[in-house]
Amino acid sequence: MKSDILKQLLADRAAKRQVVMATDLASGQVPDRGQLLYPGETDGDDELLVAARRVMLADKSGIVETTDGRKVFLHVYNPPLRMLIVGAVHIAQPLSQMAMLAGYDVAIVDPRREFASADRFPGITLIDAWPDDGVDQFAPDRRTAIVTLTHDPKLDDPALIKVLRSDVFYIGCLGSNRTHGKRLERLGMEGFSEADFARIHGPIGLDIGGKSPAEIAVSIIAEITEALRRPKQAQAAE
Q1: Are residues 100 and 53 in the same domain?
Q2: Tens digit of pLDDT for each residue in 126-149?
Q3: What does DSSP assign to residue 85?
């Protein structure tokens, strides 16, 4: 691998930037034929870019064959999946464990120490801060899912105001349609638009009829997975 490509890959990793390295497999000169693609940041229907977008969404490197007969290895360099849960409530207990099993680095932000305790959330990073400060500490990126669960505008809204100005791939909020409507009214008073509202999944989760905390957590994980793996379909379903 050329030193300039390695340097760029290291810089992208530090910046938590998604990148796919395309390497032509012909002639055995793999190290000298690298090309970096940024399908999450680049529009277009170039066949290599389309293929790179596909493997990036799948988190799975692989070989593709172009229409001119070239075989190209697409190596995915994705930052870790992360999830920030606002509110150490009952649903957060099964949700945090399911998210860890699904490959997410999980943190919970809640200033209420009686809720956010190691006994209730073993192995989970706990951020003892107000949610807006917790979002800053967590530093969300394009591979981050944000879930608000408290039902309390004093806790949920400050976090939403922060994350709506970020490029996280998923924002979900617990609450009924009526609760969500009031939430959007408050966010509108903060200057957010319909385009911002469209980013929020509310009420949160796929409609599978879940009632218990664990069942609701399943619906949330399912919706997050759809937003991650099938972003266009997830947006069309809103």
Answers
A1: no
A2: 999 999 999 999 999 989 999 999
A3: E
